Amino acid sequence: MSTTRTPVVFIPALLSDDAMYREVIDQLGETIQAQVMVMSEPTIQANVEAVLAKAPQTFVIAGTSYGGSIALEVAHAAPDRVIALWLMGCNPAAPDANVQELVGGLETMLDAVIDMLASLAVPKEATEAAETFKAMARRIGSTAGAAQARALGSRAEITSRLGALRMPALVLWGEADQIVPVSVGQALADALPRARFHILPECGHLPTLEEPAECAVLFTEFLDGEAGHDH
After folding, report:
1. What CATH number is associated with residue 95?
2. Contact 169, 87 (CB under 8 A)
3. DSSP 3-state helix, strand, coil percentages of the chain (rounded to 5)?
4. Which of 38, 67, 94, 186 has the fewest CB atoms within 10 Å around its CB?
5. Per the structure, how many domains does the chain have?
6. What is the dihedral angle through the alpha carbons of 170, 76, 59, 31, rounded to the nearest 10 degrees?
7. Is residue 71 part of a domain?
């Protein structure tokens, strides 16, 4: 087995920072060279350009929800640089009208929106994960959070372009995801030519917060398996 550390760029979800992946990165240890990028450019395209400017020459990209939408577009923009994808809770369809309401809410009622999103994102019994999400969201704050929501609203559908993404992909979904249903994850995995799909029972929208140990095991197996054969 190679001792080379795999470069992995992690992109957190909306209103989230490096705490989203901290436990997973700790579990992965010396097997990866981790770089967490909190993106808050006003459009998806600007976020893609910012990621590619800061990322290593070749890398695995991991993204959750909003971060997954960015990861998909990064892979599409630079398929020669992205050696593998790890996607969680992202929707490849075009955004709906609710995104504009979210922008307004983040600008005017941050605490109420944070509480609402936490209750949707994390099952009630996962109280520690919910508190971590709320703390991250307060650190991101109203201005950056609204910019992220605007970027989410700027995205184009990518469903029709998924077949072009020929790098290995791990698509990991919470069975209890109330924001992006598991059926969307299944369809995403089916449309990607080289995807593995895995459902986490009783997990919500933020797998790396709720089930970090299992996420680390699954990602390690993925890196050692199909993804490891490509580089």
Report:
1. 3.40.50.1820
2. yes
3. 55, 15, 30
4. 94
5. 1
6. -10
7. yes
